[in-house]
Each structure stands twice: as structure tokens, then as C-alpha cells.
Amino acid sequence: MTLYTLKIELADITPAVWRELEVPGTYTLSHLHYVIQIAMGWEDYHMHLFTINGKGYSNNLSHELKDLDESKYTIEGVLGTTCKQFFYIYDFGDSWEHIITVEKISDLDKPKNYPVCLKGELACPLEDCGGVPGYYALLEALENPEAKENEDLLEWAEDWDPEDFDIDETNKSLAKLGKRIKK
């Protein structure tokens, strides 16, 4: 089995929100979608699209774009050994672009539980926060909680912490997903 080490980073955000994952090449792009949702901390409320070598792959085949069915394509089948970077867009309204870099491709000698998150930094933005501008507005509100204009935004954000990325919880959720995929 081929194992892909992928670095997933949200575009246009500084400091970077990112994860490094190991994912079997036999996973479909549909499986990879769920891996990304868990690893990044999204809730899977919105549509998404992979763009790989100029082609779109999605689970929403009813729209007018000529996307390919992501459930019919494996990671290794689409990426092979030559594709070094591709893209995943989540939530077409907020337009969260994820830059996915293939860090390493290796043969899997000993099976273990996959997928796994090796490392990462920072929490993903809140769903429906308004994309990159909304994310920065939320960060500014957290820095100035006493400002009257930030009151509603802070109430909406509740206890969200932009620094909070729990790799152990992420890997527990990824392990559950991996068991479901094996069935």
C-alpha cells in the first residue's frame, strides 16, 4: 500500500492554520474529504471541491460544472507520483481554500491505523465566520473584547479559541473514521 504524507494549509491566513497527515493512497477523494474535515476541525456543513491537475472532483454532481465524482477516484490514482500540490475548497460562500502539498510518498511496510495527524497548528476558523476577512475580524474582536462593536461577534463565537488545536482528539476522531472506511 502507498502512504501519502500531506500538508494541508489554509490559504491567505497568517499565522498559518495547517495539519500534516498520513493517508493511504487507496482512499478515495471522498474519504480524503472526511479526513480533511476532521483534521481541520470543520463541521461538513457546506459543499466542497478538489482541484487536481486542472480537474474538479466533487460529491455534488448536480451543478453545471463538469466535476468528476470524487467517490470513484483514489488518491494514488489521481495524484500518482508526480502531483506535488493540489487544492480543496470548502464552503463556496466563505471560500476556504486549502493548499495541499504532497510531502512524501512511501510504501506502507507495517499496517497501522490510518489516517493519522502527525502535527499541526492553530484552530480552524469558525464555520460561517465570513471567510478570511471575517476570521481576521473575529481575531481582532478577541484582542479587544471590551469594545462595544465586538459584543455580538464575541457572543456568537462563544468559547472558540484560535490557538486550540488538540492533536489527540483529532487522532481519536480520525481513528474512528479509519475503522468505518475499512468496513
Describe the protein in words:
With 183 residues, this protein is of the alpha+beta class. The chain folds into two domains: 2-122 and 165-182, Structural Genomics Hypothetical 15.5 Kd Protein In mrcA-pckA Intergenic Region, Chain A; 125-163, no CATH class. Helix content is 29%, strand content 28%. It is built from five helices and eight strands, in the order E-E-H-E-E-E-H-E-E-E-H-H-H. It has helices at residues 29-40, 75-79, 131-143, 151-157, 167-182, and strands at 2-10, 18-24, 48-52, 55-58, 68-69, 85-90, 96-107, 116-121. The chain has an eight-stranded mixed beta sheet. Strand 6 (85-90) and strand 7 form a beta hairpin. Helix 1 runs antiparallel to helix 5. The chain is globular, with a radius of gyration of 17 Å. The two termini are 17 Å apart. The model has no long low-confidence stretch (mean pLDDT 92).
List keywords for this structure.
8 strands; 5 helices; 183 residues; Structural Genomics Hypothetical 15.5 Kd Protein In mrcA-pckA Intergenic Region, Chain A; 28% strand; 2 domains; alpha+beta
Topology:
Blueprint: E1 2-10, E2 18-24, H1 29-40, E3 48-52, E4 55-58, E5 68-69, H2 75-79, E6 85-90, E7 96-107, E8 116-121, H3 131-143, H4 151-157, H5 167-182
Brief description of this entry?
This protein is of the alpha+beta class and 183 residues long. The chain has helices spanning 29-40, 75-79, 131-143, 151-157, 167-182; strands at 2-10, 18-24, 48-52, 55-58, 68-69, 85-90, 96-107, 116-121. The chain is built from 5 helices and 8 strands; from the N terminus they run E-E-H-E-E-E-H-E-E-E-H-H-H.
